Amino acid sequence: xxxxxxxxxxxxxxxxxxxxxxxxxxxxxxxxxxxxxxxxxxxxxxxxxxxxxxxxxxxxxxxxxxxxxxxxxxxxxxxxxxxxxxxxxxxxxxxxxxxxxxxxxxxxxxxxxxxxxxxxxxxxxxxxxxxxxxxxxxxxxxxxxxxxxxxxxxxxxxxxxxxxxxxxxxxxxxxxxxxxxxxxxxxxxxxxxxxxxxxxxxxxxxxxxxxxxxxxxxxxxxxxxxxxxxxxxxxxxxxxxxxxxxxxxxxxx
Amino acid sequence: xxxxxxxxxxxxxxxxxxxxxxxxxxxxxxxxxxxxxxxxxxxxxxxxxxxxxxxxxxxxxxxxxxxxxxxxxxxxxxxxxxxxxxxxxxxxxxxxxxxxxxxxxxxxxxxxxxxxxxxxxxxxxxxxxxxxxxxxxxxxxxxxxxxxxxxxxxxxxxxxxxxxxxxxxxxxxxxxxxxxxxxxxxxxxxxxxxxxxxxxxxxxxxxxxxxxxxxxxxxxxxxxxxxxxxxxxxx
Lengths: 253, 235
Prior knowledge:
The complex is a heterodimer of chains A (253) and B (235). Chain A is built from nine helices and no strands. With 253 residues, chain A is mainly alpha-helical. Chain A has one domain (6-207). In chain A, helix 1 (6-15) packs antiparallel against helix 2 (30-44), helix 2 (30-44) runs parallel beside helix 4 (69-84) and helix 4 packs antiparallel against helix 5 (91-131). The longest helix of chain A has 41 residues, at 91-131. The mean pLDDT of chain A is 93. With 235 residues, chain B is mostly helical. Chain B has one domain (2-189). In chain B, helix 5 (93-137) runs antiparallel to helix 6. The mean pLDDT of chain B is 93.
């Protein structure tokens, strides 16, 4: 690989694990971003004054979905390489590229990782935990299902971004990721269906009718409440808990 | 007992790290932390019951954009930790179920109460970011590493302290009432658990289906097929 070596790209990916260590409302991932990009900047700029100016520039605002941030890191490392050779964008151009990459990657990454893979891993883990409650397989399934993909993309993504530059999502990668979102949605529906069936009749033995009715009530309430953002699901869950507690307390009179 | 409470609080710190500052591998999810706590306290049944409910409710809570969501990393550790503190190994089933109910409620309250704490940490990090830029311009190139380390240590410390306070407070204040009211709380658990499970599963279903008829059909077919297979047995 010409230019920045694989070792530097690997170090960037490793440091991307701390992308959100100082997440804040003002610059969001800014400090994590500069820390991750530092190996590339150090390799490209020998003049300490120029290097520190570049590093300080990269502490500015940046935010995207943390897994796909690796692609942005690779693409910006490529641009910094061109800039160090006198051909890349200036500071304002770099900021524009970062903003565009951040929002594009967030739009795709949020759908793929937050709205698809994470709930899918959770429901798969819960299904295994319901079926095998006396083992750790539920937790292992959840953790592996998510983190293998997440860490794989985090480490490979820097090289993808470096090779593709700012147009990294213009090719087949975007198509694959969009397809993964659809596949996960269907797979999630199947796993959820099995989880509901297992909750009604674990191991083939139907639960008491009162429990099945409560599960059905919960499902109905959940589907209705999902149509509105407020109250949040946690507030609904607290309300359910308070209601059940009150009902059990009133039972004594 | 003290060692296990201390280890539980340490796990709270690790969960706080994994949730946002470091790696984000989902080690912080309630099902994972509850499993670790079940192993630590030697009580799988209690930890897993709480963990499954909190996991289902946590699955739809997402850290999208600049939103500060409910802190289920803390909620998971606090929920399972409180249930385990309230139900020592060997107690009768009603007492155990009462502890599970109180554990889930404590987890939900801890997750909600953790939001202002997360916002406070994020505001503190603004100062770290400004300090980092100033140090870089002054010639200190180690500043990003130091700032990130400070942010991570801060999150870990807050996580440990938050979990420790919850578990010690629950152990001191709730053990007696849970034991005394165990029958009533146990009957409440038998109703609340399926309600919470159904509610959480429906939230996830809504997220996956996205008002698309084919996806709803796939869900229905999977549910009916799995139910028939479970109840009637495989042909």
